[in-house]
Amino acid sequence: MSTVLIPGPALETLSDPKSIGDSTKPSTVEVVRVVAVYLATIVISVLLFFLIRSRGEGLIAPGVSGFGSAAPETQIATFAHVLLALLVVLAVSRLSRAVFRVMHQPAVIGEIVAGIMLGPSLLGYIAPGISSYLFPASLAPSLNLISQAGVVVFMFLIGLEFNPRLLMTRSHAALAISHASIIVPFLLGSSLALVIYPTYATGDVPFTVFAMFMGISLSVTAFPVLARILTERRLQATDVGTVALTCAAVDDATAWCLLAVFIGVAQAMTAQGFFTAYLTIAYVMVMFGLVRPLFVRLVRRFDDAVPSQGALALVMTGMLLSSLATEFIGIHAIFGAFLMGAIIPHDTRLARRLVDNLENVVVVVLLPMFFAFTGLRTQIGLINGASAWLLCGVLILLATLGKFGGSIFAARFTGMRWREAAILATLMNTRGLMELIVLNIGLDLKILSPALFAMLVIMALVTTFLTTPVLDLLYRGHQSGERRPVTIAV
Prior knowledge:
Blueprint: E1 4-7, H1 28-56, H2 79-102, H3 107-118, H4 123-126, H5 128-134, H6 140-161, H7 171-200, H8 207-217, H9 223-232, H10 239-268, H11 270-301, H12 309-329, H13 333-342, H14 349-377, H15 386-413, H16 418-428, H17 433-444, H18 450-465, H19 467-475, E2 483-486
Antiparallel strand pairs: 1-2
Helix pairs in contact: 1-7, 2-3, 2-14, 3-14, 6-13, 6-14, 7-8, 7-10, 7-15, 8-10, 9-10, 10-11, 10-16, 12-13, 15-16, 15-18, 16-19, 17-18
């Protein structure tokens, strides 16, 4: 019996004798029922998306954006100017992090806000001269390189801390909940594309690509942010926290696969896009089926000794080669970096030393540059007029309802009580860094207009910001009184 102690007045004790630990051995009837509903959900979702696609293929969007390619920058900023920009970004991001930590918000919220404040939405509006001096157009390529390098290494660290065993435990419940939290917002986002494609897309962006991207952008859950929130609130060892981490891990793995397929289709289209998708699947199978077992044996054999600099250099070389391979395949380098990290056993001395050596530099120095670069690209002033702000509100509403609704009903279906299901659904609504990575890819490929990009950045910020207040509300009635055990059956 696995229990969670929640302080508060009398709380209903679940009568189901099954615990989280017992749920790893569900009955045959339960497994058949979950699998049948899951397969039916997948089939219906695919049919609905193709119906949406058939309705949207005939829509025509005005203008030409250069979809699929980014215009090269010709000017290069001086190294001194890059250092000045880095100094400003670090100072503002640290101050913003401190402010939002006081508000009991995750640090990523402060970093995103810092980036927006340094961009045209605030600094460029109130002090255009200072903004143009600190962040001239010629600085964009350098900031982009630093931010991309930071994200690649950060995703490698996420891979190092990724525990594949999470995917093996409570798998029937985690799969149902996580995929429900993807399918519902994906269909809502692709449905919204039917309405906004003629206005917010350009003529050379196919509707299929636009609809897929809108669905993916509303479906992402930020595993790192969710893990940080659970740790800060000491929920990571609870039943709800464990299930949330498992669902987020499955969600992230599925989202990366969807993103890989999407990028292949967006950049190549038709048969070449499917070829890219096949290469991606083959690469993942090779990494986990061949490379990982060899790497595990090698690491375990020498794990008693302190990893040498040569061993660390070898792993970093593998990360770069993996990133280069995924770029060659036609998907983003961050996918290869994550895979390289994921094949290294997370509980080994090598993995711990890599995390210790890289985490502070990446989190303190490099990631703030990514948020600053995203902020420089976010022009909230382009959201002009009541209809544009109404659309921004609709995006926030659909993203929240899709994630929350899909998660809570799937969690309830697998046996959770309503309160625990609501807590899990709230946690699954976090986005943050992962969402910004997806949005920047969409802007680079000219799928998103600057105005729609700004709306989606605001959506990511608001939905992530709402997580902790909603958790406080759900736990508000349990801050005093008798502590009673609560068993969650999944």
